[in-house]
Specification:
By secondary structure, the protein is an alpha/beta fold. 21% of the residues lie in helices and 28% in strands.
């Protein structure tokens, strides 16, 4: 299964590069996977990102194919994770997998502890750029 194309805004890319540079290599499992995803991303101006793409601070509905579980979570930077359970850190394996995907895309992603999971983007319920919020 080949990975779908991913699109990342220049603002998100700058912030994620700074975040990753600040973390030791072994700070979280999947750091290399996230860096590899960012390396292959098409980077576009924040004002030009399609409204169907998962960006940072987007609320996304996605399904884990193996279990059929569906989630609706907001993709956030680690400092913005809250206890409500409504957020997902970009540093979590599924968080890293979601960034830059579009509605309808599927990706195979490493599971913590081994194995793979398949994730499908059902809908981008909220995207800051689509709402005109470029400096969130």
């Amino acid at each position: 299964m080949s990975n779908p194309k991913i699109v990342v805004s220049n603002t998100d890319m700058e912030r994620l590069d700074k975040l990753l540079e600040s973390l030791p290599d072994d700070s979280f499992p999947g750091k290399a996977d996230l860096e590899a995803e960012l390396d292959r991303a098409d980077v576009v101006d924040s004002h030009e990102i399609p409204g169907s793409v998962v960006t940072m601070n987007s609320r996304v509905r996605f399904r884990v194919i193996e279990s059929g579980e569906e989630f609706s979570l907001t993709l956030v930077y680690p400092r913005d994770v809250d206890e409500s359970g409504g957020t997902l850190s970009i540093l979590a394996p599924v968080g890293s997998a979601l960034l830059g995907l579009s509605e309808g895309d599927e990706i195979e992603w490493p599971r913590p502890g081994g194995g793979k999971m398949h994730v499908r983007i059902e809908a981008v319920e909220y995207q800051p750029e689509r709402a005109g919020e470029y400096h969130r």
